Recover the amino acids of this structure.
């Protein structure tokens, strides 16, 4: 009896660890939809499509680097248990493509899990956008293709390019109205306003909070009429996509998305953002994002 139970357990484990092969028909559809030519990795049961970016390989004087240095976008598909398929990938972007492509990624149904600098060589400033999604093979392939198409629209001038904010060297921000809008108590140093709210998490089993970096903060420089805002939002796995969509809806640019530590519980992610315009309108925009994050889902009246 014990031997029979052991054999049954081994059989169940074998079924659980099996890697269902992606049918050739689905691979052909992925190629047709994405416009690439993928490779099937039998050991992992993964179909991966790589898209080299010629613009990212340029250095100077017409010289280029090999895309084998990781200068490409890619998407990988695998049969899933709870869905037909799961996909992960990275989209390599030039700096001025980030806002448009991030918004399109969220609209397509894919999830954004990271945004970081990828520039290590002299040449264009590069960013890497990490994505994940579940659904059918065709749906995921079509969503990824939409993101690649958005890059082309930016390059053709049909979509607005991202431009970095202007540095404000002299500031005179009035804190009173910002305090009221943000429902925070900020401080002004040399004309620059900053306010923060903290949350708490466990790191190596120890409770940490705002003063150890677990804080949502926002700062304003310039004048009330012409300000630059930047800050960071503390998010977690359950509200990251909500926060990103809320920022995009308010035309607030995302500069980076990163993990905070490696051993905290619950997991914490940090979204670095920025915007420029009137200080009051920027404050209303970020207050709206905070409302959405905590479940209010609406703008307050000011």
């Amino acid at each position: 009896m014990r031997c029979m139970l052991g054999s049954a357990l081994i059989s169940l484990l074998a079924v659980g660890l099996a890697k269902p092969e992606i049918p050739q028909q689905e691979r052909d559809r992925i190629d047709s939809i994405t416009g690439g030519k993928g490779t099937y990795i039998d050991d992992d049961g993964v179909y991966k499509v790589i898209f080299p970016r010629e613009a990212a390989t340029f250095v100077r004087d017409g010289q280029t680097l090999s895309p084998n240095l990781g200068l490409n976008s890619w998407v990988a598909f695998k049969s899933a248990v709870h869905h037909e398929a799961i996909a992960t990938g990275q989209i390599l972007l030039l700096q001025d493509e980030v806002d448009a492509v991030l918004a399109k990624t969220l609209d397509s149904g894919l999830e954004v899990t990271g945004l970081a600098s990828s520039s290590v060589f002299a040449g264009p400033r590069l960013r890497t956008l990490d994505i994940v999604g579940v659904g059918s093979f065709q749906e995921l392939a079509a969503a990824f293709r939409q993101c690649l198409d958005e890059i082309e629209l930016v390059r053709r001038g049909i979509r607005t390019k991202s431009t970095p904010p202007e540095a404000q060297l002299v500031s005179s921000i009035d804190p009173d109205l910002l305090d009221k809008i943000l429902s925070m108590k900020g401080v002004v140093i040399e004309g620059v306003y900053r306010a923060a709210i903290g949350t708490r998490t466990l790191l190596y089993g120890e409770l940490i909070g705002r003063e150890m970096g677990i804080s949502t903060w926002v700062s304003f420089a310039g004048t009330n009429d012409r300000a630059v805002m930047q800050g960071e939002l503390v998010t977690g796995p359950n509200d990251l996509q909500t926060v990103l969509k809320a920022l995009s809806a308010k035309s607030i640019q995302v500069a980076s998305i990163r993990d905070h530590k490696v051993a905290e519980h619950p997991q914490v992610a940090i979204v670095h953002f920025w915007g420029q315009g009137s200080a009051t309108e920027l404050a209303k925009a970020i207050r709206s994002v905070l409302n959405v994050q905590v479940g209010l889902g609406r703008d307050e009246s000011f």
Remarks:
- Helices lie at 2-17, 24-34, 54-57, 98-108, 137-155, 175-182, 240-249, 279-293.
- The chain has two domains: 18-155, 175-293.
